[in-house]
Amino acid sequence: MTERPGASVIIAGAGIVGASIAYHLAARGCRDVLVLERADAPASGSTGRSAGGVRHQFATAVNVRLSHYSIERLQAFTQEVGGYASLRQVGYLFVHTDPASWKRYQEQAKLQRSLGVPTELLSADEAGRLVPGMRLDDVLGASYCPWDGYCDPYGIATGYLARARSLGVRVRCEAPISAVHRVGGRVVGVETPDGTYGCETFVNACGAWAGPLGAMAGLDIPVRPFRRTIYVTDDFDGLPDGMPFSFDVASGFYVRKEGRALFFGLTNPHEPSSERLDVDWGWLDSVLEHGVRRFPMLGEAQLAHRRCWSGLYEVTPDHMPVLGRHPALPNYLDASGFSGHGVMHAPATGMLMAEEILDGRAHSIDIDELRVDRFDARALRVETNVF
Ligand SMILES: Cc1cc2nc3c(=O)[nH]c(=O)nc-3n(C[C@H](O)[C@H](O)[C@H](O)COP(=O)(O)OP(=O)(O)OC[C@H]3O[C@@H](n4cnc5c(N)ncnc54)[C@H](O)[C@@H]3O)c2cc1C
Fold it and tell me: How far is the CA of 130 from the centre of ligand 1 (A)?
């Protein structure tokens, strides 16, 4: 095998998470970094297939903190990093018809406010003013955070990578890692079709493929891929520009504006884990049934069949990310398992993984409950606000 110039840190995966880690390391002066990406271009995994939503409304404090830090960074992205995050803080609106979920979200709003997030609890009429025409007769209330919204994940990932490259980071595409070499309880390098690359530290930022990558290092990383489809309409003015990213919590149906079109979707709970990327046309009728029940105007919108797409969520058993150094392999780090929230948590993840590598341990946000050994040791604390 040809030996290629290695690096102090090798990052596997040039999605938004790998890109953020590369940027944060370089910005702190650690520039001997190599990002290895299997595809022929960065951000072509889940990052380029995301809905781009960013929100603070989570059930767990650590997820609220990851969002809070990340969304502040996205506000200043162009000045701090360069490139365009295209953040639009139109809010997220969670609409409740089920007493149990409404009660839970009211409790969570207290947690979010205690962490500095201005989550509001709205009456049905107040929610209806944000989304005119929404069905309200069965609505018990809604939670709304004006700091939530959506962004451009591709712009963020490529912005991080461009800045990282300008600081000296190397990015190689069409470089699928096929083996991770260990010697004496440490990762010493990785293998690609072009040759082997040595490293002192290795980061698994392979998103939905983090499980197989971990297995190459002899580790069980419980991240599994699940297909999610985003359906897109032609231009449609039946819902206003500036409307919040809106969820019918009882069904899980969501809709948001994208330019003059709409993105909408609903998780198919019967779908098994797979790497399928074809559009789930068989599920569309169920999606529309739930969608039109809450948002009757959707019945007038035309589907743009060729603009719909699917991507992969990277799901863990508790829907929480897996972050940090592996206890059995101290120079191997996980940064995956975001369970559908990796875009909104990427800025914080980059900062925290840079701390973990350069300072020995992440310290700006306590990530101990996100470390991989939680799956052996304790009953899991599940993030319930996942769709
Ligand atoms: C339909 C959909 C909607 C979503 N909506 C949202 C949302 O609204 N908000 C949000 O925050 N998140 C959302 N997500 C989730 C979000 O897209 C992911 O959490 C995020 O993109 C993860 O980024 P990543 O960099 O970890 O993974 P990816 O972008 O998938 O990057 C991982 C990279 O690793 C590479 N790779 C894999 N194996 C290897 C190998 N052996 N060698 C080298 N490289 C390899 C892949 O090619 C890929 O480019 C959504 C996801 C989907 C599918």
Answer: 31
